[in-house]
Amino acid sequence: MSDGAKQLRLIVEVEDFDAAVAFFRDTLGLTQEAAFSGDGDERVMILEAGRATLELANPAHHRYIDQVEVGRPVAPRFRLAFEVSDATARTTEAAAAGAEVVAAPTETPWRSLNARLDAPGDLHITLFQELDQ
């Protein structure tokens, strides 16, 4: 493949569109790239989240990360992770905006501070802060 993929985009169907937009755009600070509406109540918003990566993990690693960050298996097959500059403050803000804290910020063996939340839109997310940067 001479020309690799230019963008990774995850499309999520959310029942409460306004709550999901408020959480991801207004609370987590993702930048609105575009928004469109159509017939009836059809709406979509594309949010920029900085650099995107695709992390592939086998089941053993998936279980290990759950154990380190939460202490028990909790994550579904898909989980979103957002790097933030202050995981503790962002976790507090996220909880105030409607996310359920699954695990408070915890320092990991690889020197990041990671929190787990169930966010609007039925998404399981990690907020992480790199401590050595």
TrEMBL record:
Signal peptide: none annotated. It holds the Pfam family Glyoxalase. Residues 4-130 form the VOC domain. This is VOC family protein.
